[in-house]
Design brief:
DNA polymerase, domain 1; Rossmann fold; binds adenosine-5'-diphosphate; alpha/beta; binds magnesium ion; 345 residues; globular; 2 domains; nine-stranded mixed β-sheet; two-stranded antiparallel sheet
Length: 345
């Protein structure tokens, strides 16, 4: 289609003040505010799955050509503008180090598992836990949602949590039980968790888009749980034909989550199922659902499996700075904890 369909907008700076207030670490504008994009093209871009400028900055221009009916040079220009607007450029090693200094960690309940993760589940990162049904992925999420509320010296961040539940397995009673064990007021602990039940993958996308609003309303939010990341996508996108669409959408959600982690210094914990891999003859014949995309975005990946005597074993896979290793722990009525020394003998 012709390039002269591009809308030109004069209102680039209208929202500058309010958006800058809300986003201290980068200048943030709406997609429609980008030069060469008006509301019509902006809505086409959103329909193509790019909800904001950061997502757009990572887009392949050729995908925009198709989805928005614009010429390739224009698409390239829009993506370049998005990159500029989102300041996807370099910072010095020192600036980077400074940012890393604000990283904090939430205890999983098990010291062994914390050590495996370099001290606990980290803010500014996505931690993915994958494993079979019943391996303990949700239990870790329950524990983190309680432990995040503890004081710093107890492994918490005195924070609150958001929980996106795609499988209908969130249990208030479990939160209350774990909170009581940690000496928290059970009802208050529950009050400090915002639960969004997602009924479709589109709904899940919308709930993730709502998170900045929730955090602006409650800056104590320090943990985002998505349990599980792929269940709805997997159920809805059946067959190879739509796999690329699915992956693209999942990719957008993951990048939005990573952006939230960076922007608000929160920890993101996502769970994932495994599927059988008939092609693997040796070793573990399972793989996380969602293929390579999650692996490329998640900073920490833990493969969970059942161990001896009802224990659980977490294996750290693909960490940027930590050695691969394993940690054993238990799931008890009191929550996630180390295997006590007695039982090890
Ligand atoms: N109150 C409890 N007391 C002891 N163990 C529990 C309790 N609740 C759950 N579990 C253990 O956790 C397992 C379920 O783990 P879950 O995190 O739901 O698995 P998934 O990986 O499918 O999310 C159960 O099979 C049980 O072994
Ligand atoms: Mg579960």
């Amino acid at each position: 289609m012709e390039e002269d369909e591009i809308e030109h907008t004069e209102e680039e700076n209208v929202n500058e003040e309010t958006t800058e207030e809300m986003n201290s670490d980068f200048e943030y504008k709406d997609i429609k505010d980008l030069p060469g994009v008006g509301s019509t093209i902006a809505s086409k871009i959103r329909n193509a799955g790019y909800q904001d400028i950061i997502a757009l900055a990572t887009a392949n221009p050729l995908v925009l050509v198709e989805a928005c009916g614009i010429g390739e040079p224009t698409a390239r220009k829009i993506v370049a503008e998005a990159r500029e607007a989102s300041k996807m450029n370099f910072m010095s090693g020192l600036e980077f180090e400074d940012k890393r200094k604000s990283v904090q960690r939430i205890s999983t309940g098990s010291e062994a598992l914390n050590i495996l993760l370099g001290g606990g589940v980290e803010t500014q990162s996505i931690t993915e836990c994958y494993g079979e049904y019943g391996s303990g992925k949700s239990q870790i999420a329950f524990q983190l949602s309680v432990d995040v509320q503890l004081p710093l010296d107890k492994g918490g961040l005195e924070g609150h949590a958001i929980w996106i539940d795609t499988e209908g397995t969130f249990r208030p009673s479990r939160i209350e039980q774990l909170a009581a064990v940690k000496g928290l007021d059970p009802k208050q602990a529950l009050q400090n968790i915002k639960i969004g039940r997602a009924y479709s993958s589109d709904h899940q996308v919308l709930l993730v888009d709502k998170i900045p609003e929730l955090i602006n309303a409650d800056p104590k939010i320090r943990l985002i749980v998505v349990d599980s990341m792929m269940a709805l996508f997997r159920a809805e996108y059946v067959g190879r034909g739509t796999l690329a669409d699915r992956q693209q959408k999942v990719n957008v959600v993951l990048h939005n989550l990573q952006r939230l982690a960076d922007r608000f210094n929160v920890a993101v914990y996502i769970t994932n199922q495994v599927m059988a891999r008939p092609d693997v003859m040796f070793g573990d014949p399972t793989a996380a659902v969602g293929g390579h995309i999650i692996g490329h975005v998640a900073t920490y990946r833990i493969y969970l499996r059942k161990g001896k005597k009802g224990s659980r074993v977490g294996k750290l896979v693909d960490s940027p700075s930590l050695p691969e290793g394993e940690a054993s722990f238990e799931i008890t009525s009191n929550g996630i904890m180390d295997i006590d020394e007695e039982k090890k003998k």
